[in-house]
Amino acid sequence: MEFKARDIASLLNGVVEGDPEAIVNDVSKIEEGKPRTLAFLSNPKYEHYLYTTGATIVLVNKDFVPAQPLSCTLIRVESAYESIAALLQMYEDMRYRPSGIEQPSFLHGEATIGETPYIGAFAYIGKGACLGKGVRIYPHVYVGENVRIGDNTVLYAGVKIYHDCVIGKNCTVHAGSVIGADGFGFAPSNGAYSKVPQIGNVVLEDGVEIGANTCIDRATMGSTVVRKGVKLDNLIQVGHNAVIGEHTVMAAQVGVAGTSKVGANCMIGGQAGIAGHIELGDGVKMAAQAGVGVDVAAGSIIMGAPAFDASKYQRSYVLFRKLPDLYGQIRELEKEIQTIKSK
Amino acid sequence: MEFKARDIASLLNGVVEGDPEAIVNDVSKIEEGKPRTLAFLSNPKYEHYLYTTGATIVLVNKDFVPAQPLSCTLIRVESAYESIAALLQMYEDMRYRPSGIEQPSFLHGEATIGETPYIGAFAYIGKGACLGKGVRIYPHVYVGENVRIGDNTVLYAGVKIYHDCVIGKNCTVHAGSVIGADGFGFAPSNGAYSKVPQIGNVVLEDGVEIGANTCIDRATMGSTVVRKGVKLDNLIQVGHNAVIGEHTVMAAQVGVAGTSKVGANCMIGGQAGIAGHIELGDGVKMAAQAGVGVDVAAGSIIMGAPAFDASKYQRSYVLFRKLPDLYGQIRELEKEIQTIKSK
Amino acid sequence: MEFKARDIASLLNGVVEGDPEAIVNDVSKIEEGKPRTLAFLSNPKYEHYLYTTGATIVLVNKDFVPAQPLSCTLIRVESAYESIAALLQMYEDMRYRPSGIEQPSFLHGEATIGETPYIGAFAYIGKGACLGKGVRIYPHVYVGENVRIGDNTVLYAGVKIYHDCVIGKNCTVHAGSVIGADGFGFAPSNGAYSKVPQIGNVVLEDGVEIGANTCIDRATMGSTVVRKGVKLDNLIQVGHNAVIGEHTVMAAQVGVAGTSKVGANCMIGGQAGIAGHIELGDGVKMAAQAGVGVDVAAGSIIMGAPAFDASKYQRSYVLFRKLPDLYGQIRELEKEIQTIKSK
Q1: Within chain B, which residues score under 70 in pLDDT?
Q2: How many pairs of residues across A and B have Cβ atoms under 8 Å apart?
């Protein structure tokens, strides 16, 4: 599909500077800018790319003043960043989406499907499952018995939801994620382990997004809960009975062990680990690969494994790198003292 | 389903203290205790919740003496913990389970299926595969050529078992796990890599439980072996030709590289890493996020990356946190010596 | 299938030393060597196994001189290692492979399939997808709209490829991997997060092999690129807009965050983490569990988290282990100085 600079400007309430007939058919980053694409400049750090970009049209902030001559056409808008986000959304909305119920799929006679669904081929909707309006279920999705799924939620290909779990409205779960597998509960018994049945469930509240191949285990009893607006990346582990607070974000490969509670608005870096039975307050920030085994006060910024205050960690780590020097200094001091003593 | 206190007491050989007609329809934790649920008190640490719990009935040990008045009904049993485990199992056993062979599914003409199976819709059973009695194969499971699966084993939705692998009796594999993908074997060849074919298999012995989205690679030659009673959590990696000893447990996101041997009755914490070609003795305990690249003696408790004795690690780590102080002390000593020397 | 020593020798252009009628029906490792199997000896470290191995036939290098009497039959070849690799490949090529298009499968009317495909039951090929010649698509694979797949590529069971992604020729993707899920892009907005649409794609160039349950996210705009000959192990995360250079290998559970660029011919150890927006030069080696948040020069060998030069890291770590001793030495020095001062 092609767009002229004049049409985009009109859509975004912007002003063209250059060729209003310039045509684009894709978007690109300003630093990679290919011909016939639209790029944007928001962060001043990237300004130098503007003068050499191959992009045909570039969105800039209203008050931007170029320091050099330009070969591209500009569109001046209120906020280049928000405008590009809006355009990406329009672009996304325009792309082809399958709809209706493809065959073969398996809809149990006692399942309920809301209006205007998409159910992909080979999707499985179990007994007693209840799907809201506008739900999109991609191929190879498994929805177990009595699962409830809220309006406009999207489950991508191969998502598996075990029995009795509850998924809110406007959630997105990416391919291969598993919601509601058994928590890791085994009781030692004569040198072996016997399984503790896991009869709870998982509850994802509204507006949650889960990445690909992430696992959220069902509770032993009660619920493992992922609160409103939480965003989890790929390959994350959330153990049984954990609670993840509202609007918390976690990068890929984080692990949250069983029965722990993570506060609201936390930011957890990739590959970080949170041990079981602890509590992180609201707004905690954990660095990538950090590991924590004790409660953490709200607002803390932590690093290391075991993790502590990030700026203190960094000071210690600088000296860890210098340990051979420190060791030499101690040796030197010992010699000096021997010299002094021998006098 | 509803139960009266008198019925539960009779089932558990217990004694009601309070209302024998009290009714529950679910179980809950004592600290979350909701009305019309059954909770239990085993750990004295939780006793204070008993006096305020909303649970209608609470199981307690026979000899428990309440310190305050109670609003719930008690059932006194020999062991509250074992009774609740028994009840959870009954509860689990009562829940709806699909059975029979759902359609469409793919059963190769040369596959063999034991008595009373469950084969979910869209399950694929390949040529020459052989399934024992009472096996439950959920939807979207792939069972490759010549795979053998023992009696009463359960493969949850979307499990993938590659050709020639052997799964024991009474095993459970959770959704999305992959058993028998190629080991990571490539031979350097002129600045690139050529693949070393992986012609071995994976053997899971009896009573093994594997979490969701875990990967156990096939051996280059011979077998990758997971011994009797092993319990692996979610998102774990087990490399080609590794051997995991009997009744060892591993928390989520652990990685075991190729050709390593982990002893029996080990406990490996979440996100720990075990390098290739090493051996861990029996009963080794590794802390979460620990990493080990050398052999580890039986019974060791290790921490850190590279890991060493956990109590020594903790002592070193305390001083790591104090490195800025130590650095200050060394600076101070240097000054003092200068002062002494200048006299 | 059975082979005589004389036939194998003839196949490999080798010379039999022992019984030319000796029969094998499998291959094994020399240290595990079972009767009726063929083993090989290449690394002199394993020579002692030769004298006790149960293997019936052993491949050795042409010039090998045994130090003790042997009970097995030898076949002398130019290179035992290359010969065994060649035999493994023949063995692999001989095994049963499904072919044709199994039913039920879902091929969109607007999809294109090349010659001699294998399409497993329950595979889903979306609208506008285009598959090359000799492609093998196992059961439960999902190929989204407009995906292009090159000749002779193999997608194992349950692989999910999102819309618009491009997979090269001679690639292998193992079970459960997800190519092209949304990048983790959210813009903070009034204490919550709003999604940034991810309209780019993933490009895997030719000869790439991806392990099981690995995730490679689509770009926000443009492409996440995995270059020619790259080998990624299981459970790896590659973030949006990352670029992985030619012939780089990564062990299991590595994480590469968004927009980072990894050079060619790098070797990244298991569970290592690469932060976002950084660049690793060609030939970088990262130790297992290392973590890096800054650019890394070509050819560097790094370790630790945050990572730095591996040999320096090891020196510091030796002293980290000795920190209690160092602390004692500092205490001792303080006492000595007090003693000196008091005189």
Answers
A1: 1
A2: 185
